[in-house]
Every structure is written in structure tokens, then in C-alpha cells.
Task: inverse folding
């Protein structure tokens, strides 16, 4: 199968600057951060609402794409496990998946809570969290 | 920013063959399906367990990447909304996100329940659903 080309639609601004600063998961202590979108995608932002939760997809550009198995959470007492059974950022397609709460939307800048991704990380997509069938 | 190259790691086998067959969401009537992985990724599957729920990321290869706003669920009485506030498959980076239950794992074939993606859809990634902090 051929490769597919992802187009970054924006990037993250955060006080988290390197991997040693970053929590492993957002509920383990993640700061507020900003999503800065490219101007071309302005119409796609229409409808994002402060207070709502969204799924943010990012490209983990510092990940190692050749890693296929890891010790979960770098704990050598845990057995080597396939990356598809872990949340390791090192994986063939290092797409980050983050549930964040929107705090504000101003033009191309969206401020969010609970984002453990590093400063400069490319943004790929934003999706609403689905409610019950009746709310769609 | 430069583009990033996604590498398909496998594909979906399903009885859903075109868009008119597909439910909009898996809890609106989705069949069982099979994930067929490429041989190179065999070590990455180690640890996937029948009965567990995983997040499956796919490349929605029949989507229109130029669409930035839609009427949700094609309902013209609903206002035009930015795609990042909807689950429309048409979006700049058409990455599908599916929560599925693993039914069996046999070699490179993983059978799952509740998958609304079409036959032949490329698979990008599999991630476990995270439990509480204490279970990680």
C-alpha cells in the first residue's frame, strides 16, 4: 500500500518543552496550552465552543517510528509488550490522541486544558466527543 | 510545515462495501469485521487481548480533504458547521477513530465488534483504552 500525506493544520504552544517535563497522561498533571491553527483552516473551526471536550489528534514528531515493542511506562519489570497494546509515543504512525477541554476560542487560537503534548507539536485534527445517540 | 508520511500497517475486511451501507456511528448498527495486519508489524500486536476495547485509527481513503464545513449528518436544517466540530469523514486529515471490542487474535488477523469502516480501509494504529490511573 502507498503512503498517505498528512498536512499539519496548526501547532501547539505549551510550557512543556521537552520529554522530561511531560507527564505520561494528562490526568497526571498537564498544563493549559494553546492550539494555533493555520489561516487556511479558519472555516473548519466554526462551531468549537468553550466548555466542550474535544479529541485532539497530533503528530508526535519526536517519536521513534521503528519501535514495535516496549516495556510499558519504561518499567523494566513489566514484560516487553507490542506498541499497539500500549500508549507509547514510539510506534509506526505516532499519532497522539488527547481529550482536552476548550477554554476559549479567539480567531485561530484555541486555549485548552489538560494537554500533555510538547511545545511545537503539529496538530492534525479536532473531533467532538460524541454524546448519546439522541444528542447527535 | 512539511507533510508527514503515514504508513498503512494493515487494512479492514468487512461486509460494508460502500458508503450507503455504512452506519454513521458504530452504535447505530455496525457488523463484525477483521483487521488484517502486514507481516512487518507482528511484534507490535503482542499483548492485544480478546475481550478488551481498543481505539482503532484508520485512513478514510474515500473522504474529501478539501471540505471545511458541513451540515451535520447531511441534515440541511442544521447550520453549516466547521468540520472540527463534527464527525464528518470529509476533513483535511481524514483519520477515522473507532472504539472496537477485540473478539479474537489469530496471527496477523484480529476480529473486532462494532466497526463502521468500509472494506479495504487502511489501518494506521491501535491504542488501548486507558483505565484509571491505578491500572496503568
Result:
Amino acid at each position: 500500500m502507498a503512503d498517505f500525506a498528512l498536512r499539519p493544520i496548526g501547532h501547539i504552544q505549551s510550557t512543556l518543552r521537552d520529554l522530561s517535563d511531560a507527564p505520561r497522561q494528562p490526568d497526571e498533571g498537564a498544563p493549559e496550552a494553546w492550539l494555533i491553527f493555520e489561516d487556511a483552516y479558519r472555516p473548519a473551526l466554526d462551531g468549537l465552543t468553550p466548555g466542550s471536550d474535544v479529541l485532539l489528534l497530533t503528530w508526535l514528531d519526536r517519536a521513534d517510528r521503528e519501535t514495535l515493542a516496549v516495556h510499558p511506562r519504561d518499567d523494566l519489570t513489566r514484560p516487553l509488550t507490542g506498541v499497539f497494546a500500549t500508549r507509547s509515543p514510539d510506534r509506526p504512525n505516532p499519532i497522539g490522541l488527547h481529550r482536552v477541554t476548550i477554554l476559549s476560542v479567539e480567531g485561530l487560537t484555541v486555549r485548552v486544558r489538560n494537554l500533555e503534548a510538547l511545545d511545537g507539536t503539529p496538530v492534525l485534527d479536532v473531533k467532538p466527543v460524541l454524546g448519546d445517540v439522541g444528542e447527535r
